[in-house]
Amino acid sequence: MDQKILSLAAEKTADKLQEFLQSLKEDDLTNLLQNQAVKGKVAGALLRAIFKGSPCSEEDGTLRRHKIYTYCIQLVESGDLQKETASEIVGLLMLEAHHFPAPLLVELANEFISAVRDSSLVNGKSLELLPIILTALATKKENLAYGKGVLSGEEYKKQLINTLCSGRWDQQYVIQLTSMFKDVPLSAEEVEFVVEKALSMFSKMNLQEIPPLVYQLLVLSSKGSRKSVLEGITAFFNAVDKQHSEDQSGDELLDVVTVPSGELRHVEGTIILHIVFAIKLDYELGRELLKHLKAGQQGDSNNNLSPFSIALLLSVTRIQRFQEQVLDFLKTSVVKSFKDLQLLQGSKFLQNLVPHRAYVSTMILEVVKNSVHSWDHVTQGLVELGFLLMDSYGPKKVLDGKAIETSPNLSRMPNQHACKLGANILLETFKIHEMVRQEILEQVLNRVVTRASSPISHFLDLLSNIVMYAPLVLQSCSSKVTEAFDYLSFLPLQTVQKLLKAVQPLLKVSMSMRDSLILVLRKAMFANQLDARKSAVAGFLLLLKNFKVLGSLSSSQCSQPLSVSQVHVDVHGHYNSVANETFCLEIMDSLRRCLSQQADVRLMLYEGFYDVLRRNSQLANSVMQTLLSQLKQFYEPKPDLLPPLKLEACILAQGDKISLQEPLDYLLCCIQHCLAWYKNTVIPLQQGKEEEEEEEEEEEEEEAFYQDLDDILASITNRMIKSELEDFELDKSADFSQSTSIGIKNSICAFLVMGVCEVLIEYNFSISNFSKNTFEDILSLFMCYKKLSDILNEKAGKGKTKMANKTNDSFLSMKCVSSLLTALFRDNTQSHQESLSVLRSNNEFMRYAVNVALQKVQQLKETGHMSGPDGQNRDKVFQNLCDITRVLLWRYTSIPTSVEESGKKEKGKSISLLCLEGLQKVFSAVQQFFQPKIQQFLRALDVTDKEGEEREDADVSVTQRTAFQIRQFQRSLLNLLSGQEEDFNSKEAVLLVTVLTSLSKLLDPSSPQFLQMLSWTLKICKENSREDALFCKSLMNLLFSLHVLYKSPVTLLRDLSQDIHGHLGDIDQDIEVEKTNHFAIVNLRMAAPTVCLLVLSQAEKVLEEVDWLITKLKGQVSQDALSEEASSQAVLSNHPVEKAIIMQLGTLLTFFHELVQTALPSGSCVDTLLKDLCKMYTTLTALVRYYLQVCRSSGGIPKNMEKLVKLSGSHLTPLCYSFISYVQNKKSKSLNYTGEKKEKTAAVATAMARVLRETKPIPNLIFAIEQYEKFLIHLSKKSKVNLMQHMKLSTSRDFKIKGNILDMVLRDEGEDENEEGTASEHGEQNKEPAKKRRKK
């Protein structure tokens, strides 16, 4: 039969074939087809023949065709056929679909849809036909019956797609169904149906099946709905990530259920690759992604951003076109996030309204962590982002080698955090990804070398962390580091020191690197530039410190442990130590040559030798010998010759130019410290060992050597005491002027002598063992120092230029200062009292000791370390800081200033006041540099010695300890305030408030101690009145800084504004203002400008917070993809925030209502008030615009908003206009006054310029008011509430032509036109002519 059908089909006409097919029974054909198909023989040809003999023009043919078609579909679906046969059949069916009439196509499509809905598909092969059927249907023009109506083919296709998408899809056919739609012509609406359905299936599918589905969706997105596809994918993975992190941090039992981390990350990585690939082919998709993420950011920097979307963005940076945009977007998001965090941390009001969220910075670091799972496509983006953040937000400008922040304090914090985040990203990426290590190192070194003029400390810190993490790994990149060494002699000294310190662990691993560095340093030794030679010295000293010689003391025996950088790599065997010895002695030879170079180079050497000894004790001999031979050049050996030092030899005269050749004071200082170190560390150890005889002989030689130095120092001390100033030719009559060479020489000598005295004071104090004679020597040395410093100060005072402005750093070491202060103020040992009374009797000496301590702490605040030995060692600095603070605190609290000052009137500050100043500096330095050690610091301050209670002590919180210290200072301030007004010591009060401010930062804002502090400060402000601007300002600042962490300060501002109004009176002089005495601190003299400017700046901050909240709300509403119910929910959830905003603005309105009526003195107060009013109206306008947005979805506006508008119309706007008139009248009066004085035109011109400057904010304010009213009119129309009924239209700026005045002006022709022009610009027309007449 099959043969017959095929032979009939071969004929030209199909008539016989039709007849034959007609004659067959229904099942014959299907059975025949099944047999042929299963055998895999001529099924295709047979099918063709059957279709040829079943034309659609006849009803029978159509039905036969339909039957065969559906049967073939079942055959293909059954899975009984071979692959080739099935494909052939499907291909034929595809070709035939277009010949079907529309109703049959509808039937076929419906059969498919019900098969999908009932999950009756077996292998889904036949689904390939559905797009063809739908496409064929869409081309049919005739109307088809649907229900009771009729639809065209296109509409029917839409209806079918809708039915298909609203039905249930079996999980295994989701990908096939989605991919099927790419072959169907779809309208935008239909694409949206399909995309929504596919996205809703994500959660039901296995994780592994999602990437292919995402791929199909991305292909489909070329037809439209790009935004939905991207939003859906990111939203799904954000949710999965969130769930995953919650599961991981939650109960461990859940791990069984959840996806393993690695699998999830691999899937995410694949999907990101798919999306990036799609963006490369379709840039529109990339633009949509950026648009979607930026839109979410409008109100809140954390909306829409998540680890997944950030990783996606970073991968997109590989596409050239988007690179800059994406990095810029991430950079601004990071800074915005840090700024938001800062705003939140500084305001309890905001903390209560805005929930705490994850920040962009933590998300980015999470991406770095996740990128372990072969996310190689993300790493390049991470590296670029890290460097972008470090470059953009690193420390700015350099001045005198110090980095200066150009921006004010507040904006600095987010920038610092952003820079730090950049460094963290790079460090973590470096640790994880080997492929970018070389690049990161290269980029860091490039920046270090090329940016010599700008501060690069942040890059050097990063380099140090990288090297510390993996010195051995970096050996492969050693050529890069060696390359950087070639530039050493051109880099600033600070950079060289930090760079060498950073790469120092590498030098221990790589001999070649060490050798190349030594070559570079040797060359630099003889360079022309002084800086290059200093760099060479710094480099050599660093090498000496870090290459241990065999037999050197271990770090536990040394006074300082080795730096962390040596912990990772210390690969020294015995051989290394021996090699190190020759290596170090070689370097010492090189350094000896430096002793004939400039003073600066020698000075560096003297400052570095002590550290070298401490780290490398075997070099002691060599170092000390060098120092001794150097000292002998300037020492007078004959015991009876005065002075004992040859100062002339220290000074170099080249023609008229006089300069210092040998910093003798530093040399002595170095000798003294090395000697003390030797006595304390080496000698006790040597005495403890039983040595062999030979060694003992050697030792005797060595000890003789140290004895020698001891004798020289003792001899210098004795002779210095005997020497008069005349011996140095430095008495009162000497010339110290900086203009003559003699004067310069004398001042250099004077500083040398003063330095030597200080060094000897420390030397004698260290060997004194509390002997009375030594203390008397110390005092004599101090008197010599004092005389010289008095002479220099006196001469400096007389000279017009401040000479010797650089008060040289004191030579006393920090350790000495802390021991000296402890001895002077706290030593109660009976046997010491007699000798100590020698020093205690001299008030000048005690003041000097405290002053030096202050100088050291100031130095720490400015540079982060102190001069002198151990000044770079953080632990030692901290220890000494604790000791010094304990003494200063005891001295200040036990002997108050009032007691001390009543006794004796002296020049300069009293010791107690100096102690207080020291405490203020210490508290701020500790918070700046030792934040983690604050608990330890406060424990050290507990003066009561309770050794046994140490253990109980440990669990006392920082807040409790701080509160204890605060109470002491509060008592002192109360004592000060309880005295008479004329006895009030302003300096001390301001210092006390500053101390309280810095201590209050350590209190936890939720603790009762914090509340006590706040209520105490409020009480002080309410009850005490002092006419001292500085005190008032610092106290008010303290009050505000505490208050914002408790709640918003708007009510406080309202009360203060009433006080200011009461004191200064009203702008209308006929009105008597009743005085409200909320705060006694506000008095007539303080009200303006001090308090007025303070409250205005606070009001500005409140406005900024409100503005931030409104922007946040707008961002939430503008997510316009929200459906109706979602948006009404959003409006409901915003309710508490809206209420808070309206309350804030309402209270601020009453605050401005008071100030606008106050007769403020012209100047800064008026200017600031006008600017802040302008901000107030801008914020009100922003709120009105927000309600315009909300009105669309919810319809109305809340009642309290209506009240706010009413209040602004009655209490603020009219008063603003009268205030503007008041300001303009004041200005014109001052102009008239200037005119009356008939001074030179210059005076008039400056007055004019001032008026111009001061009236500038007025037009801005008027514009802001009018903008506000304009949007209110819009809102009134939208909300059907007449909000304008409370607004009076302003008439104060109507333009009138006054005829009589015009005539007079026209008659006045001889006047200077220029002045007329300028003044009339200010709407002063009515005043002008009167002034002119007077001038005539």
Automatic annotation (TrEMBL):
InterPro entries: FANCI (IPR026171), FANCI_HD1 (IPR029310), FANCI_HD2 (IPR029312), FANCI_S1 (IPR029308), FANCI_S1-cap (IPR029305), FANCI_S2 (IPR029315), FANCI_S3 (IPR029313), FANCI_S4 (IPR029314). Residues 64-280, 378-541, 811-1039, 1052-1302 form the FANCI solenoid domain. Residues 1-53 form the FANCI solenoid 1 cap domain. Transmembrane segments: none annotated. One of its GO terms (molecular function) is DNA polymerase binding. Signal peptide: none annotated. Residues 1319-1329 have a biased composition (Basic and acidic residues). Residues 284-370, 555-792 form the FANCI helical domain. Residues 1309-1318 have a biased composition (Acidic residues). GO terms for biological process: DNA repair. Residues 1308-1336 are annotated as: Disordered. This is Fanconi anemia group I protein isoform X1. It comes from Sapajus apella (Brown-capped capuchin). The gene is FANCI.
